[in-house]
Amino acid sequence: MSRLRRLAAVLSALAVAASLSSCGGSSGSKGGASSGGAAKVTLKVYAAASLTESFGEIKKSYEAAHPNVKIVYTFAGSQDLVDQLSNGASGDVLATADEPTMEKAAKEGLAGEQRKFASNTLVLITPKGNPAGVKGLDSSLGGAKLVICAKKEKVPCGTATHKLAQKLGVTLKPVSEEQKVTDVRGKVEAGEADAGIVYRTDAVASGKKVDTIEIPGADQIVNTYPIAPVKASEHAAEAKEFVDYVMSAEGQKSLKKYGFGSVK
After folding, report:
1. CA distance 140 to 142
2. Which CATH number among 2.160.10.10, 3.60.21.10, 3.40.190.10, 3.40.50.620 corresponds to the domain 120-220?
């Protein structure tokens, strides 16, 4: 019987050890990573509002190729994005709709190495069917409700609109000036405005909801889009990989699909 008792004691000790080992393994994976796998990284990307559709497609293809990364976007006017980062918001990548805004971020120590990845120009859009009969930046705008991006807040689309109007010798009389180009687009789509000056990419994104009118000379006012890792990023390697992907043939294909031009 003594031998049986000793054998039972040994088996009991082994069972306890196995149980403790199992508990230890469970505790080690509590952080969200599966055993032997890398923890999933949430990459916060701050991007100009005009990138909403193209970056949405890039997110899908990027996450499919990088299953350990989850992209979380903040879309807003470029100047608002820089203000958010300047005020302490955490982020990993910044993509703006013009170079001056990115330069501001760099001077404040917010942005790392900049790379130019896309370009954009302006067009005029009206609600489908063009009920006000707008033909361009001319007398046909008289009495029409025109909406544009704000210039005084240094909204990139607003700055480009002001430069284009000056170049064409046209005085614009908008009924409102918006903080981001997607707000201009939204008012035209909803029929709250008779016309709006937006990026070509916004006209593409609106699809059949609007009519598009080309603006002669608009190709001479080009906004170049830069992208950069955020210096304070806690995921520097992943941020660089995302920037590289946007610059890749796959990323450029998505941008071109939504109306962006290449960078010369």
Report:
1. 5
2. 3.40.190.10
- For 93-108, what is each residue's pLDDT tens digit? 999 999 999 999 999 9
Q: Quick check: pTM over 0.85? A: no
Q: How far apart are CA 193 and CA 77, in angstroms?
A: 20
CA distance 237 to 229: 9
Annotate 183-236 with DSSP letters as a single string. HHHHHHHTTS-SEEEEEHHHHHHHGGGEEEE--TTGGGS-EEEEEEEBTT-S-H
Q: Let me know: does 224 contact 263? Beta carbons within 8 Å.
A: yes
Measured CA to CA, the distance from residue 75 to residue 53 in angstroms comes to 10
CA distance 37 to 107: 39
Q: Give 181-201 pLDDT, tens digit per residue.
A: 999 999 999 999 999 999 999
